[in-house]
Amino acid sequence: MTNIVIPKQFKDQFGMGTAEAVYPAKERRILRIIAVLVLLAVAAATAVSAVGIYMERWGRYYPPVILKAVLPDVAVCLGALLLVLLILWGFFTSSKKAGVIYQNGFAYSTFKGVQSWKWENVRDITSSVLRQYTNGVYSGTIHIYILVNSQGEKIKLDDSLKDVEKMYDQIHKNSFPYRYERLANVYNSGKNVNFGTVSLSKTGGIQIGKKTYPWNEIEEVAIQNGMLSVKKKDGSWFSGANSVISRIPNINVLFTILDKEMGINTGK
C-alpha cells in the first residue's frame, strides 16, 4: 500500500482513525506566476507612460488637463496592481486548502483552519454537477458540494480540490447509513421529513413547494433534466411537480425512502 503523506495542518486530528486518502488543492502556481509577471509589466509600463505624460505637460497645461491625460494609464496601472493582489490572495487562501478522508470521518482545511467531522455528524449533503459545453463541444464539469453537520456548520467542496468528486463519493458513501437511518426514523414515526424544497409524509404523500401529491396517485419519482419530477399512475406527469435537484439535500436518501418504505418506482 502506498504511503499517504498527510499535510501538516492535519497532524492533530485525534479519534478519526487511519487516513485513507488525501485531496490537495489543484496546482496552479505556474499560471499564477505568469499572470503576476504580465500584470506587473503592464503596471510598470502604464506607470512610466503616466509619468512621461505628466513631465512632458507639466508647466504647459492646467492640472485638470494633465490629470485627464494621465487618468487612463493610472487606471490601468491600479487595475493591474489590484489583480496582482487578488492573485496573491488566492494563492495564500489556497495554500492551506486540502481534504483528508479518514476511517471514521473526514477533515477539510482552509486558511481559516481545519474542520473535522465524523461520519455520523454529517447531516446534509447537497450536490450540484454541471456539464459545460462551448459551441456544442464538452468543455468540462463544475462540481459543487455543500455539506452541513449536526451543529449547522457548512463546508463547500468544489473544483479547487484535485479529484473533488472522488472525495465527495467517499463522504457520501460513508455518511449515507447515518443520514438514511435518521431520516427514515423520522418518516416512519409519522412526521414530515424535509429535503429542502421537497418533503415526505407517510400518510400525506410527497410535497413539492406548496403542492402535495398523494401516494395512491404516484407511479414514479424520477430525475429529468436536472429536475425531480413526479409521474402519475396513468403515465402522465403532474404539472408543477418538479424541483431542481441541486436544491434538494440528501436526494439519495429521499430516493431510498421512496423505494424501501413506500415501494415507489424511482427512475434514478
Descriptive tags:
268 residues; alpha+beta; PH-domain like; 3 domains; 4-stranded antiparallel beta sheet; 15 strands; 37% helix; elongated
Structure description:
- This protein is α+β, with helices and mostly antiparallel strands and 268 residues long.
- The protein has 3 domains: 29-94; 96-184, PH-domain like, CATH 2.30.29; 190-267, PH-domain like (Roll).
- The chain has helices at 29-57, 63-94, 164-188, 251-262; strands at residues 19-24, 98-102, 105-110, 113-118, 122-134, 137-149, 154-158, 193-195, 198-201, 205-208, 211-213, 218-224, 227-232, 237-244, 265-267.
- It has a 4-stranded antiparallel beta sheet, covered by helices on one side. A 4-stranded antiparallel beta sheet has the order 8-9-10-11. Strands 14-13-12-15 form a 4-stranded mixed beta sheet, with helices on one face.
- A hairpin with a 2-residue loop joins strand 2 (98-102) and strand 3 (105-110).
- Helix 1 (29-57) runs antiparallel to helix 2 and helix 3 (164-188) crosses helix 4.
Approximately what portion of the residues adopt beta-strand conformation?
25-35%
Structural class: alpha+beta
Radius of gyration: 27 Å
The CATH class designation of the largest domain is Mainly Beta
Q: pLDDT average, as an integer?
A: 89
In short:
The protein is an alpha+beta fold and 268 residues long. Helix content is 37%, strand content 34%. A hairpin with a 4-residue loop joins strand 6 and strand 7 (154-158).
